[in-house]
Amino acid sequence: NAGVTQTPKFRVLKTGQSMTLLCAQDMNHEYMYWYRQDPGMGLRLIHYSVGEGTTAKGEVPDGYNVSRLKKQNFLLGLESAAPSQTSVYFCASSSIQGISQPQHFGDGTRLSIL
Amino acid sequence: KQEVTQIPAALSVPEGENLVLNCSFTDSAIYNLQWFRQDPGKGLTSLLLIQSSQREQTSGRLNASLDKSSGRSTLYIAASQPGDSATYLCAVRFQTGANSKLTFGKGITLSVRP
Prior knowledge:
The complex is a heterodimer.
Chain A: E1 4-7, E2 10-13, E3 19-25, E4 31-38, E5 42-49, E6 56-57, E7 64-67, E8 73-78, E9 87-94, E10 104-105, E11 109-113
Chain B: E1 4-5, E2 10-14, E3 19-25, E4 30-38, E5 44-51, E6 56-59, E7 62-67, E8 72-77, E9 86-94, E10 103-104, E11 108-113
Parallel strand pairs in B: 2-11
Antiparallel strand pairs in B: 1-3, 3-8, 4-5, 4-9, 6-7, 7-8, 9-10, 9-11
C-alpha cells in the first residue's frame, strides 16, 4: 500500500518564487494535515482539513495556502517563498474517527529557499 | 500554553539495555498520545497510540504507558538493538483548542552502540 505520498521529495527555490507541494493518500481518510519540521522546533501544524472542500489554520499558517478539492489530495502552496520557509514539510492523514485514530505520515518534502 | 517535553534530547546506550524514554505534557485533558519513530531523512512511523482511557499499549519489544494525572508517558524498549537507533517523538492530542491537532515534543535521538 502506498499510504501517504508526497511530491516532490526535494526542491530548491529562489526567494519570491512560488510552488505547490502535493500530498496524496489512498486510505480514504477524511482528515489531512500539513506540518513543518525545523531543528530545535519540532513539528508544527501549518494547515489541516477535516474533509473534502474544507481547510483550517494550524499553528503557523502565515505565508501558506492550502486546498482540498479532492478527498485524496491536499495541496500546500507557497505564493512567495522566503528563506524562513526552508524546512522539511510533512503531510499526514487520519480516518473519519479522526481524534481517536493515529495519524499516518508521508516521507516528507525537503525544501530550501535561497 | 499546551506543551510536550521530551528530556533528554539525546541518549546513547550499549546494545542489550532496557530503555525508558520519557514524555511530559502540560494539560491532563487529552484524547490520546502517540509515539513515533523517525529515521534520518525519513518520515514518521507510528509506533503506539494510547487513548486517554488506557494505561498502556504494547507492540513487540515496545511498551508505552500513560499517566494523565501526572502528565507523563513513557516508552519502554526492551533489549535494545542497534536497529532501534532513531529519533523517538511523542505527540499529544489535547482536548482543548483545535482537537484535530497533534502537539509534538522535540524528540529523543537514541543511539544504541553494538
